[in-house]
What we know:
BTB domain-containing protein, 16 helices, 6-stranded mixed β-sheet, alpha/beta
Amino acid sequence: MDPSEYISSPLDSGAASQHEGPFYVVPPRALEIKTETTNNSLKLQPLMSFGGACDLVVELVNSECGAQYLVSSSVLQLVSEVWAKLVRPRGFADLTKVKIDGIEYPLLNLEDDDVECLTFLFKIFHFQQDDVPKVLTYPQLRKMAIVCDKYNCWSALKLWKEVWFNNLIRAAESPGYEDWLFIATQGSYTHPKIDALKLSLFQESGSLSSCKSYFIRHRDPESYTVSCEILPQAIINSIMSKRDLAVNDIIKRLREFTAMVSNVCQDHTDEETLCRDKNCRNIALGSLCESIKRMELWPLVQGSDSTPRTWHGSLRQLIDKVRSLKMTTIIPAPLSESRREQPNSSIAVVTPDPPGIAPESSLRKKRSRSSSCWIATTHPEIMERFKPEISGQRHECTMYDGPAFIGVNYENRPCETAFKLGGLFLDTQKAYCPDAL
């Protein structure tokens, strides 16, 4: 097996102890690249003044460049309580002084802010916004949200905020735009697209990495790494908690259903509600187990409450796999004209096409209990409702090789007394769309 193919399995995006694959590893901590800069290597931008009444120099230094601004201290104190405390520190030493053109100004040092975003903010606050863009790119909006959150100045940007947000909100649900959760939360912005993003993450997110710093978002046919660096922890915890509850509920129901099928095949006391045909039960159990293994769900079924197995893929992937499970059971096949007079004829083996409509006479004839599925003689009205289009060659018994979970009423299920499949698919579908996130 190619290691890259194994690692891409949805079982392999979380804790390692749950699975035994030879190539399985714990997702590593996201790389943290630290860059060291010195003032000598910085690209300094020329001083930007916002008018003759300005009385404060702001010097910004980040890892890429530096900038100086001559601003109004009154404006900064008005738009941001954070800046107000920095400009007039109480209980701390006053700001240092710097001379510009022979005039001495107090100097406020800022670090690590985005130069472009801070420039836009100062222009807006000083009513010089002619060249401030009304449409930001998503990276610009993300950086702007970080700066505004740091200095708590969203309230002074109400009109601008609405314009910026509304121009970009349409893509919020798409992969790569997960930081909209941070942008909307810090900007007190509500929109149906934000709710849709939360629901998409609930359905498409794998489990958190061991370091809790990122997770994998699965949207067919691709998978994406989502950093939790600035995502609101409360929202992510809520989404992941609801995801885990839904996943565990589906796993529990799948285990219970598989255990029920297995137990019924060994205990035939419930003959009044379950099919009496032993072959029907055994074929169903074997085909179910084989289908579970083919869908890579067997490790989940093997677990128990004391030794749980964890699903590290997305909820959507798990539900798709459960809905893809198939079971095979026996159904009575129509007798040919030449065999209808034989009371103990065996049932024919057919792998039908998708259910269609067969002649009514093909499903109405009763056969002896010893030679047919019990439902054929006990509940002819059910067989009247199930009218598959039979195709293929006749052998010893009729087989049904279709999905076990087709519809709410399971009208296309071959033997309605073989196993009670009713709740499994419906419960998994309910877990997919929670009432609220």
